[in-house]
Design a protein that fits this description.
heterodimer; A: 327 residues; Rossmann fold; 2 domains; seven-stranded mixed sheet; globular; B: 327 residues; alpha/beta; two-stranded antiparallel sheet; 42% helix
Chain lengths: 327, 327
Amino acid sequence: MRELSYREAIREAMFEEMRRDKRVIAIGQGFMGSRGGPHFVFKGLQDEFGAERVRDAPISESAIIGCALGAALTGMKPLAEIMFMDWITLAMDQIVNHVAKMRYVSGGQAEVSMVIRAPLGAAASAGPHHSQCFEAWFIHVPGLKVAVPSTPYDAKGLLKAAIRDKNPVLYLDHKALMGIKGPVPEEEYIVPLGQADVKRKGEDVTIVAYSRMVHLALAAAEKLESQGISVEVVDPRTLVPFDKQTLINSVKKTGRVVIVHEACRTGGVAGEIMAILMEEAFDYLDAPPVRVTGLDTPIPFSPPLEKYVLPDENKIVDAVKKILGKL
Amino acid sequence: MIEISLKKEQLIEMFRNMLRIRRFEEKVSELCLAGKIPGSSPHLYIGEEAVAVGICANLRKDDYVTSGHRAHGHCIAKGVRMDKLMAELLGKRDGCNGGRGGTMHIVDLSVGFLGANGIVGAGIPIAVGAGLSARLRGTDQVAVCFFGDGAANQGTFHEGINMAAVWKLPVIFVCENNLYSTWTPVRSVTSVEDIAERAKGYGIPGIIVDGMDVIKVYEAGRTAIQRAREGKGPTLIECKTYRFTGHYVGDPGMEYRPREEIEAWMKRDPIKKLQTVLLESKQVSMDELKKIEEQVAEEVEKAVEYALNSPFPSPEEAIENVFCEIR
């Protein structure tokens, strides 16, 4: 199968959906010309679809999201981009109080078919305002779906699903994954929202990881394999809807779970996954689940500081050994 | 003697609509004080009727309106059925939102009413998006957003107007300056005497109009809406107006407003003003006006009856429509 980068996969999804459906439009900063935004993700998009459908917006996050909502309510399917997820704070009212609630509050009249693309994550000393992972905030808002792709295949398939969905979807790709390559079929496909993927099969311990953490988990699993420990890696791919069944099936087999995310620990997604395990899989657990997460600090700039607060392969290896009583 | 550019039928229709709003709001107050309206007391539109009616008299059914927390007048002027509106205020199943929204969240997409709003200024970017959508779909629809003087100090005001101006979108920004943002006098929190002055900063026309004179509001609206339909971009219209009651039902509105000020504005009642014009120009007889009053009273009575007779939603309906199910 041909290989594409994560960036190319996102781009291909967008081109295909804009060709397929005239209602799909893009609104974001830095869209003028052929560059396609800060991460070159939508390179050439404006060249093909023009400045009307690919709109270079003022630095007005709240208006970008509100504008996308107004367009969605009146028959368009916008993708609104927040250049770095850190700045989604500027659009929180529109997302939380309007985008997420419009369908419900209107008693089912409104269809809010829109995507908010907001790249998240630390990427080599980007510093405290260009590195954060805020996905947990949004799983706490009823009415939003949240996609967190880890591979080029998932990045393309999930974006196509998000654009076609009739609900608002936060599409949170990871800045540090842009260059990674992976197989992406030539023929059309979709990755449905709400279907986890077992990225590696194993018997002893389940690691739940998403976004960039999947790659760390796979590297850790590789290392552990050589030490005789068999690890299964479950990637939920979307946090809302969350595929409980795939996780529970894995836990039935392994009885042990390590949950990994880059975001800081307190109030993070891992806590919610642990609650699901307690409520729905307690009988299958042989040990308390363990979290490997970012520390409860802002993301520092200096490389050794940044490395210290983020999860890495070794921290995951240690957590797996700990849960097996081998550390 | 005022020169009248409107046909008799149009003037009568505006009279009828202002009266509808006045009588509707009086009933709302009555029902609220009788404990029939759950939750927080509604914000009444009494005194400001000329603004909603004068602007909306220029709109088609397929044009769009967004509003704020004092929205009943905009709903009625845009064509939301009064019985459905009243049922919504009472939290009933037959309300326009099926009881999900209440007074500050009215949505009726069938008449282009994209939403009242509980967040000050939040409807502004949403209207911008509706205007963008109209343009991209190649229609000559326009979007009007109504907001108060308080909203003119929100970030969304700046972001939304700048975006609409730079993209030349068919959006009309209508500021209802009723001199008080809740209990705060506008002059003590606003950098300019006239909010319309701010239009200069966005390179768009800013118009100040007597918001107690429905004919003047109509004419200002006509100019702005024509301009928008012709693709010439947005206008900011500031209507100087006054609420005859407190911020909400139960707020006497006296402690923070001078008695002389209240009395002076009450003398400028927009409904009486149009009535005088109609009678003095001998277009309508007192008998005809009486008949309209009776018809409106009956219509409002029927709306109340409809709302009171409508059942409450069944509790388990509360979990419907968080998401749009894909069928």
